Structures are given as C-alpha cells and as structure tokens.
Amino acid sequence: MLKKSLIILTLLLGAYQCLPxxxxxxxxxxxxxIIKRIDWPTSSDNNIVIGxxxxxxLYNELHSxxxxxxxxxxxxxxxxxxxxxxxxxxxxxxxxxxxSSSKIKEISTxxxxxxxxxxxxxxxxxxxxINFLDNTKGLKFEIxxxxxxxxxxxVANSLLTLGIIKx
Length: 167
Known about the structure:
The chain has 167 residues and is of the alpha/beta class. It is built from five helices and nine strands; from the N terminus they run αββαββαβββαβαβ. α3 (104-111) links the parallel β4 (93-96) and β5.
C-alpha cells in the first residue's frame, strides 16, 4: 500500500511540475494568435519581431515556434529584451514577465509613440495592451483596446470577443 501511494504521489508531483512548462507553451500559442489579429501600420518589415523580457522559458517556447511557423507570410524573430539597450525600433511585440513588471511604467514611456503591442502576465497593470490572467480553467487575458489604439495598432473584433475588455 505504501509503495502504491508513493508512486501516485510521484506521478502527481511530476504532473504538477509539467504545468508551468505547459503554460509557457499555451502563452506562446496565444501570442501567435493575438499577433494574427492585430494590424500594424504599413511598413516594409520582412520580419515580425517579438521581444521577451524576464522569461527564458517563454523565450524558448516562442523561439521553438518561430522555427516552424510564420505569421502572415513573415518570418518571426524572437529577441531577449533589455530595457538598457533601448532597442525598440524594430520590435512589434514586447512580452514582459511578472518578474519584470516593476519596469512596465518605464517601458510604457519608452514605447509611447511606437507601434508596439505590450503584453504582460500580471493582471491589473496599466499601460499594457494585453495581460494574461492566472486561471485554473484555462488561459485567459485582459485586453485594453484604448492602449492598443494609442500605439497606432488596430484590433480585430474576433480578438476582443476572446478577451476580457478593460478600459
């Protein structure tokens, strides 16, 4: 009986440890699908550049996905983002992990006039376009259409129906 209980406990702990990795996979897929529903101002960019700040795990998932899929016929490039570098001219999307959320205000200021979609995973943060929410029933997100529009981007109605609209 003890041996059987240990096996079950080991399986449950193993499944629990896989959940965060699975969450990064889902977030990377969501980010891809979100990008497909955002219109950027006309440009001659041949690539879609996604910056990732504060999450090596999400960076790895996005990088893996970028090796296999394009968006709107464009190659997807994943970059680690460092606020000190101020390299925002070529970024289309910037994901800021919860661990870096204290820098959101500074990042928002840096991106204020740029057509960049800012995504975070800490609910309630102001200045972003999308916040992923922690939810045991699946991955959900808040969407701030006013913030997105202020970055010269437009949002497809299909994306608005998927998220929780915030003003």
